[in-house]
Amino acid sequence: xxxxxxxxxxxxxxxxxxxxxxxxxxxxxxxxxxxxxxxxxxxxxxxxxxxxxxxxxxxxxxxxxxxxxxxxxxxxxxxxxxxxxxxxxxxxxxxxxxxxxxxxxxxxxxxxxxxxxxxxxxxxxxxxxxxxxxxxxxxxxxxxxxxxxxxxxxxxxxxxxxxxxxxxxxxxxxxxxxxxxxxxxxxxxxxxxxxxxxxxxxxxxxxxxxxxxxxxxxxxxxxxxxxxxxxxxxxxxxxxxxxxxxxxxxxxxxxxxxxxxxxxxxxxxxxxxxxxxxxxxxxxxxxxxxxxxxxxxxxxxxxxxxxxxxxxxxxxxxxxxxxxxxxxxxxxxx
Amino acid sequence: xxxxxxxxxxxxxxxxxxxxxxxxxxxxxxxxxxxxxxxxxxxxxxxxxxxxxxxxxxxxxxxxxxxxxxxxxxxxxxxxxxxxxxxxxxxxxxxxxxxxxxxxxxxxxxxxxxxxxxxxxxxxxxxxxxxxxxxxxxxxxxxxxxxxxxxxxxxxxxxxxxxxxxxxxxxxxxxxxxxxxxxxxxxxxxxxxxxxxxxxxxxxxxxxxxxxxxxxxxxxxxxxxxxxxxxxxxxxxxxxxxxxxxxxxxxxxxxxxxxxxxxxxxxxxxxxxxxxxxxxxxxxxxxxxxxxxxxxxxxxxxxxxxxxxxxxxxxxxxxxxx
Lengths: 334, 322
Hints:
The complex is a heterodimer of chains A (334) and B (322). With 334 residues, chain A is of the alpha/beta class. Chain A is built from 12 helices and 12 strands. Chain A has helices spanning 48-55, 82-88, 110-121, 126-139, 145-149, 158-170, 188-205, 216-222, 240-245, 250-258, 298-302, 319-327; strands at residues 4-17, 20-33, 37-41, 63-72, 75-76, 93-96, 176-180, 208-213, 225-230, 233-239, 308-311, 314-316. Chain A is globular. Helix content of chain B is 33%, strand content 24%. Chain B has helices at 52-59, 83-86, 106-116, 123-136, 153-165, 183-200, 211-217, 235-240, 245-253, 259-264, 295-299, 318-321, and strands at residues 3-18, 23-37, 41-45, 67-72, 75-76, 89-92, 171-175, 203-207, 220-225, 228-234, 305-308, 311-313. Chain B is globular and about 70 Å long. The two termini of chain B are 32 Å apart. The interface between A and B is large, with 44 and 43 residues.
């Protein structure tokens, strides 16, 4: 068993907007072991990015963590001061964002932006930082690094920019790399290059990765564990095989049914999830998925289900699992 | 089956600077030919900048083609007044947030086309038509008085589809209609496109970069690269017996939503980026990223030829690749 690197327990985070409290995260629990790749999947507004940002301590006003703990590498992030947080960010945990076009500063050269991170976190001088920057550029597979360092972001293609973002994120060899939809803005052939690079670097540097995406194909390919989020809650967590071959939450099942697969030999009609995503301003009292769930029961509407372990390391929050267990004569929480 | 749309040697160049004497052009679509049968769906895939959207828009003459011919139901429409054809040929845009006027009610958005083409006999008829369209796309008549911002992305895309359907078209260009939608909503919209096609006998040109969806919905698929069609075949054939090296790498790059299958799959990872369309490579445009490229590929442009019935491909080295 490897070491536990990240342990999020019952995290609650709300945005206090003029229109009311938006419970962006409503009881999120996650674990990540050293050297693992964890995928967080969910649709827009499900809270996957907010979860990642709270690990980085990047919760912005009007958002506030109102409950739960985040243990990362034996720090409790929820209680850290901003100064400590700054030292940790980029050093022990770093993040790559979705859009490489907007996350680099257009008025500074690539070299300047990579050196900034190195010089902030180590006592290297400019010349040493420059050497390290060249090393990093080579690491992420950029040709002619010396020339590229002098260029500005607009001179690089989307794929190249995302490589630069990865180089910046890896400058201090972090223990954890968070990738927030790193390939959504890229074409599929470039996406394949970037994903391949990330796995290669993970193996070389021995870091862990949290991969946030809405693409089930990417998680199937890259991740060892998957957390499925819906309406600010992790509705199911398990190994990739558990989630794909033995899904226990109705949302996970619906999601897997609704995507067309390229390797299907015949034309099957897709089975969509009916309805619309949750309105986070007025979430349902019970299970967030209840209004769209085909197997919705009375209790689902009024009461939030607890997590139930369905197998070792595979849990899900769905009343149906408890109902099944009850029908088989087992014990339930209700 | 009869051909509804036929495009011959279509070219669409855009001026991109340069001097008066030596102007520079982006060859967005460069000598593309295909046809679409009545009631059929032709899928068009490729990476950003390959010219798939431009092809769709030029086909509707939203851009004036640089050269080439467009036929609709056997009639050459390359230089005619489009007004009567606008009724028959419609488009659904990619971004449901940008393609609906935020200051118009949903009823007026759908009704605008009815007004332009004078399809309604009176106000009552207009209203009924609008309600019928909204119901057809899974919305209801109450929605007609609301504004676009009150709707979710999936619902907005339904409004966009209702607008296209309002004039009873025969042919619709679907320009990435689902890529801005959440995964759980995509299947709803894809199914709606399929149902509408069956009910109304529509013909689609379905443009998308997600090959999973395109393969699901299309009868035939064309693959574009830097303004050229490189392969065109029936969709099963294209997915499982593709011949062009670019199609092969494109398909192998798509992540499969199945852990075991995706681990077993062999990926062909393409090196480098798509070259600039301002200065495309000589000969075969894919040669700079192709592992089979030879001297011949640099000198001579491969012909887009039919290798088996209905299967067209533009490559010099099909035998070597396969």
